[in-house]
Design a protein that fits this description.
The chain is of the alpha/beta class and about 500 residues long. Helices cover about 65% and strands about 5% of the residues. It has 18 helices and nine strands. A four-stranded mixed β-sheet has the order 1-2-4-3. A three-stranded antiparallel β-sheet has the order 7-8-9. Strands 5-6 form a two-stranded parallel sheet. A hairpin with a 3-residue loop joins β7 and β8 (about 445-450). α3 (about 95-105) crosses α5.
Amino acid sequence: MVQRGARKAGGAEHSARDHALAVLRVRDGALALALLPAAVAVVLFATGTGRAVRWPVAEFALAVLVVAAAAGLVIARARPVVTPTVEVPERAAPALHGLIRDLAERLDVPAPAGIALTPDCDSWLEEPPRAGRARPGAPVLVIGSPFLWWLRVGELRALLAPVVAGTGPSAHPDIAAARRCVRAWDATAGLAAGGSASRRPLLAFAGLAARLLLRAAARHTADMERGVALAAAGRAQGVDPALRTSAQEQVGLAYAGWDRLLTRVASPAWRIGRWPRGLNAGVVAALTELSRRDRLAEGFAARLGERPACDLLDEPGAMDDEISLLAARLLHGVPGAPLPAGWAPVDWAAYPDEVVDRIWRDRAARLFAALEAAETPTLAWVLERLADAAATDHGVEALAERLAAGAGRGEKRESLVEHVAAAVCCAAADTSAAVPGLDWLDGPVLLADGKRRQDVVAPVCSLVDDGDPGPLHDWLAGVGARADKPVRLV
């Protein structure tokens, strides 16, 4: 099986080299086209053709050479966008670096030049910046951080085997040269797309040339990368085949948990200027919670007893904080250091008080402003005004418009329900034993007697849609909350 995989990998790598040479022929063809007028001029001078012909041709050839050289310099100096990552130096994770080196040796490929983490559910090899390389030409292994926290050590090794195996084909000179060409063309096309042709004509011309070259080499580039991937997969075929199936299953689970954590938990915090620490630890907590709720997920609990891959880091908590801040910057647009005023980290233990409670009270304040409350009202007054609005034509629609101007009709109604539910939760937290809480899968929740209360939306919808406050009054009585007390907004 291993020999068959090696033969398959060798054939795929040979095919990738053929397509890499085709990409390089596109580059060489463009160079030959730029040199063609100069070659014609040389022939005219060598054959003694009349001055009336050879000098105009020579001037044209010189102009073409100057423009081509300038455009070539622009393309050569263009740098592709580097994915923001958190570098993992060997001193911070000697065990992880050792695992990757052992894996590369087992696969008989060069080891990556370094390791970096990214707040994403993906892993790949990335060409590092030219300055400060550990080894020229060696790519950096970028690992999705949720994998490192959720996968076990054996699963991570099986998952990364095809990725690390890609360093073999990548080290071939023809493939490396073809990739450098494609990256330079792509970077130039991207730069030119963001500039003005009238202000920077040379960049515009270089961008046009780069786009033409990309188009001419597109099929061969795709086939080259496909061949590299097939070669890497074939080479990694014999590495932990049983664990690879398990790892692929866990990848899908990690992706779902990561996406839900970012959407339901991290995004609300980012919107109010807080970035949660330990997002990757949060993914583990979310998926562990899922294993408790889903009777089909009983196998999750058993695998949690095995050593997690994040143990390969010396200080996983500190690394998790760096990745969490990078996630906020990438996914929410938080500027780089120093952080803007008002932005601060929040621990998971403080999340209910610093995030959930603040979100509820901000929404309650906006609802009161939309209802034109003269002072901080009681919840009973709010419910009465909402019932009156529901009893009139377009009263609820007008209120929803004030809360979410510019949104669609369904979004406006949903926003109104969220704001009313927030005011209700504020009243429950102020006048009963209920407290704000965090659900790893659903985000902000209300906890009463240590249990999640997820039944507040239905009575709120009865009030908003039908003007019936009865179910909501019953809900408040069941929680032990009082509607006759002013709602605290701070």
